[in-house]
Amino acid sequence: MDPMALVTQYNLLQNGPPEESKLATYMKRQQNVSPQSTLFQSLSNQSLSKNYSNLDINQSNASMKKASIPVVDFVPRNLVNSLNIPDGSSMYAKDKSQPIQAYQKNVNGTTYFYPPDSNGTNQPNSNIFDDPSGYLSMSSVESPTSSLYAQDDMRRDLLHRNALSIASPDSDQWPDLPENVEDYHDVYPLDIHGHSSKILTYSTSTYRATNSKTGEKCCLKRIHSFHQTITKYTPLIEAWKKINHANIVQLKDVFITKAFNDSSLIFVFNYHPDSESLQTRHFNSNEILNGYNDPFSSDPNAPRPYSHTKNAILRHQHSNGLLSENTLWNYAIQLSGALRAIHGSGLALRGLCLNRVLVTGNLNTRARLRINCVAVMDILLNDMASSNIIGHFQQEDLTDFGKLLLALACRSLIAVHQDNLTTSIDLMARSYSNDIRNLIRYLLSNQRRHITELMPMIGARFYTQLDAAQNHSDSLENELSKEMENGRLFRLLVKLGSINERPEFNLDPAWSETGDRYMLKLFRDYLFHQVTEEGRPWLDMSHIVQTLNKLDSGSADTICLYSRDEKTILVVSYQELKQCLEQSFSEIASVAASDDLVKAE
User: What is the top-level taxon of the source organism (predicted)?
Assistant: First the structure.
């Protein structure tokens, strides 16, 4: 058995490792050892006995520390190999008095050793440190054809979003669903299990629909039984429609309709499939909004938090798990940018909460936040905000922003109740830096605040997010280039498929077997139907892609085409094949176009 860097949490003995430990088993497995090995083992036992007393077995599971490894200490073989050390007897740097620095991390009682970075600095290798188990596992080998297609995860996500965009409703389940709502058709309900929600005292429903004029997918937010006019809100609606921000679901239109057999107010927003709210993503579905300031709640008898809130918050943190600080900063930067755009336009969001923020994408890649349902509260509250009180609403936005970040940091919805703020901030300080704590304290303070004052608090983290966004954009462009090349080759295959084996053209049943078309038939066999010397099909994706690329570019390279009976041999260039392809396909296209003209007449 190869040596493993394993230190178990036993009661440490002064005479060496425990007899039942794997380390002791390894050190005693060789019965016949040389004198040099015996001396090395004796020194190792003494050194281990001395160094065991310095180990803190009560350290946290995620603790990370720097370990100095002398020559006689036990070191994993992988670590020795990674340091380019031929044997364990030469484990010192050029300066004999300086031992090599390694890193170790204790996870669930198991200590993993990590080599320094490849550049020689005393830092753990970042690729290894991200996942301790990955240090012991083999890396996956990338497929040679992976450069021809989009990544599997991205393709799967896009296909899933496309499936959600084209889903059709069940007529038996939704018999009263209208076919058209003004200029929108293909109406599909988005409410979970068909249950409508409430905003203030109004019942609401959400639908996906298609704009009949543009063909775009849109989200319709329906306010049931709305018996007011919205003419006076036209300037406000136009102001919201002008806001086009990456972290705001854009408002497209607002109108009143009777398509649902009542007077319904419809808000039209951009549609972002496969999105969920922050509360759905980061909180348990059974957790009650106990004390959270939900601006859409109309229940004055909502339950209040009990006195032992500290234990409750800690219990929520334990059950939900803490978010990383990078995730919190990512959320803070995106939401602050959205609020900056809203406040800069002289508007206020009026009710920022976890349910109003949509999340699209995976946390392992890059989650996109979008504030939803803008302008809804302005109209439903029926109080045209004057310039004198708009500043007050903007201050409330900043307070709600601070509560949202605090709820995410504590992973508890009761943490943001007014009576629990001090306790929640103190608990948050145990796991996060002072910077994020100071940001939340500023947002929750009673002083006059402004959204632009958050930028100095964010500091250089903004550049980190900008760099991540640009890298993600480069990755998407790279994936797009793959699909663009695939589309170009697909058009070539469409032309070939339209010509090859065509049974009849212009009353000529032999059209596809004569002239240029016969050459294209032989090329089709050269492209797809080759076999090995043993007669087995020869499948080579790179051969197909390379050949199609040369055909598309009209290369001067020549190939030898054989008929299936091997009685006909043609040596042609890709340039000649391309001319044959274009001429033959143009004949088909011209006849098809003339038939369309005849039908139109």
Answer: Eukaryota
Length of the chain as a residue count: 601
- Tally of CB atoms within 10 A around 368: 17
Q: Where do runs of H (alpha helix) occur along 130-271?
A: 152-165, 234-241
Q: Quick one: which H or E segment has residue 113? A: strand 110-114
Helix (H) or strand (E) holding 371: strand 368-371
Does 310 show up as a binding residue in the annotation? no
> Helix, strand, or coil here: 369?
strand
Pairwise pLDDT comparison (271 vs 119), residue with the higher score: 271
DSSP per-residue codes, 157-186: HHHHHHHHHS----TTT-TT--SEETTEEE
CA dihedral sign, ordered 277, 283, 287, 290: negative
Rounded to whole angstroms, how far apart are CA atoms 544 and 356?
A: 50
Torsion (CA) 123, 128, 129, 134 in degrees, nearest 10: -160
Contact between 273 and 164 under an 8 Å Cβ cutoff? The reply is: yes
Strand 368-371: give its sheet, edge to edge.
Answer: 276-277, 357-360, 368-371
Confirm if 76 and 113 have CB atoms less than 8 A apart: yes
Question: Global pTM?
Answer: 0.63
Which pLDDT score is estimated for 38?
47
Spatial distance between the Cα atoms of 491 and 509, rounded to a whole number of angstroms: 25
Sheet strands (E) in 180-290? 180-181, 184-189, 197-199, 202-211, 217-223, 251-257, 264-270, 276-277
Give residue-wise pLDDT tens across range 80-130.
Answer: 444 443 443 433 334 444 444 455 555 444 554 555 544 444 444 444 333
